[in-house]
Amino acid sequence: MAYETIIAEIEDEVALIRLNRPEARNALNDQLLSELSEAFRDADRNDKVRCIVLTGSEKVFAAGADIKEMSQKGFVDVYDEDLFGEKIETIQRIRKPIIAAVSGYALGGGCELAMMSDFIICAENAKFGQPEINLGVVAGIGGTQRLTRFVGKAKAMDMNLTGRFMDAAEAERSGLVSRVVPTPKLIPEAMAAARKIAEKSAVTVKAVKESVNRAYETTLREGLLFERRTFHSMFATEDQTEGMAAFMEKREPQFRDK
Ligand code: HXC
Questions:
Q1: Ligand 1 site-directed mutation target among 5, 21, 25, most atoms within 8 Å of CB
Q2: Which InterPro entries does this chain map to (predicted)?
């Protein structure tokens, strides 16, 4: 499928999706979000893909929703079309792991898109922010919700109320990102992490993703029960038998996703 606002390629069982609207700092317009949700859906269905890496350019991950496009709309327009509802839902339903590799600015919807991935690896030049307040709006796809759960109320309030940016060191300190790497190493590091995940059993990988996400969607008690039952259900897989046998036989496991 040929896209105009993103570049999607597959390398070593990893789908690498690049946001590519340099003239608009990768702003998320309607076309880009349609193409992105399509590319995610394709990667999720494609047997040759085991992990997804989402990135932008070195200077900008994404500068947020497209302000020029949004500025033309009124309340009834955005409410009626449920702006950002369906396409974002599609991204949230992807079952394969998604790593966001963030270099440069991840602002507004860009920061929110990064937070929608399963984890973020960022470059030393990364800057995260929820500057929607400067436009007279609030964040629309997780900037007041996911960010608060990830970095706590104090920093989420600070960022959403003042619109200030968080640099890579603060993002790592606050738990927003899992690793910070030198800027030129970002893609190699994210691809290496993705290839590491691709070596695991795809069944176990899905179960891990579902279990960790439960921590954000349920009470601790329900989450722990979900985790324990998922752990139990892994004993119905051939990959559990293989994984444990390989450990005892001091060899690498040969997972078959069964
Ligand atoms: C539309 C954008 C844009 C955006 C940049 N551009 N961000 N167009 N929507 N979000 C356009 C500019 O208008 C300009 O177009 C060109 O890209 C280059 O932008 P500059 O500002 O000159 O580039 P630079 O100096 O490199 O600064 C980069 C930047 C800055 C720091 C990222 O562009 C910026 O602050 N952008 C806006 C960030 C923001 O407010 N994001 C929140 C959006 S609201 P021309 O035509 O002049 O060359 C949002 C709501 C989320 O995300 C709701 C759910 C998705």
A1: 25
A2: ClpP/crotonase-like_dom_sf, Enoyl-CoA_hyd/isom_CS, Enoyl-CoA_hydra/iso, Enoyl-CoA_hydra_C
What pLDDT, in 10s, does the model give residues 171-197? 999 999 999 999 999 999 999 999 999
> 């009470």: which residue's tokens?
219
pLDDT tens digits, 112-139: 999 999 999 999 999 999 999 999 999 9
> Is there a catalytic annotation at residue 109?
yes
Atom number, ligand 1, closest to the C-alpha of residue 67: 9
Those residues with Cβ within 8 angstroms of residue 239's Cβ, 6 or more apart along the chain or in another chain: 201, 203, 204, 253, 255, 256, 257, 258
Q: Are residues 232 and 244 in the same domain?
A: yes
Q: What's the whole-model pTM score?
A: 0.97
- ipTM of this predicted structure: 0.98
Residues 25 and 44 in one domain: yes
Residues lining ligand 1, Cβ inside 6 A: 24-25, 27-28, 60, 63-68, 84, 105, 107-109, 112, 131-132, 135, 139-141
Q: Ligand 1: which residue has its CA nearest to atom 54? A: 140
